[in-house]
UniProtKB/TrEMBL annotation:
This is SnoaL-like domain-containing protein. InterPro entries: Fungal_Meroterpenoid_Isomerase, NTF2-like_dom_sf. SUPFAM superfamilies: NTF2-like (SSF54427). Coiled coil: none annotated.
Length: 144
């Protein structure tokens, strides 16, 4: 039973650290918890962003990282975080808010993180965001 509890705590800690990495706003930080084979899928599919490997996601994120420096991401309620030890998955609700060179930005996310066997690295990220907010930001970014 101790192994189960330890793995659960590790999964939860990795998910929390993932949010901390998001708040560093660097490609190195955002990729630091990802296993070499990590895949990152953006949803809803109507955003037409798709699935990226680490190198692809680093390039994608790099286009927005500097713009998001004054934004903060946080877990809405860690009591609502779902930790499935057997599948090594964590589901969490997060928000992001702050100022960008393009104006105030705010978004809301559901993340599903699938971890490695030891729970310390992320093998898969499924990110579901408020698509209206994401589209608005992308349009502003393209227009600048």
């Amino acid at each position: 039973m101790a192994d189960f509890k330890e793995l659960r705590a590790t999964l939860q800690r990795t998910a929390t650290t993932f949010i901390d990495c998001c708040n560093k706003h660097t490609v190195d930080a955002i990729l630091s918890l990802r296993a070499d084979n990590c895949k990152h899928t953006h949803l809803p599919s109507s955003l037409d962003i798709g699935t990226y490997n680490n190198a692809e996601y680093g390039a994608f994120y790099g286009r927005f990282a500097n713009m998001m420096k004054d934004c903060t991401c946080w877990i809405v309620d860690d009591k609502e975080m779902v930790v499935d030890v057997e599948s090594r998955k964590v589901v969490m609700h997060a928000k992001n808010k702050g100022n960008t060179p393009l104006g105030e930005y705010e978004n809301e996310y559901m993340w599903i993180l699938t971890m490695t066997g030891d729970g310390k690295m992320i093998e898969e990220i499924v990110e579901f965001c408020d698509s209206a907010k994401a589209i608005e930001l992308m349009k502003k970014h393209q227009a600048k």
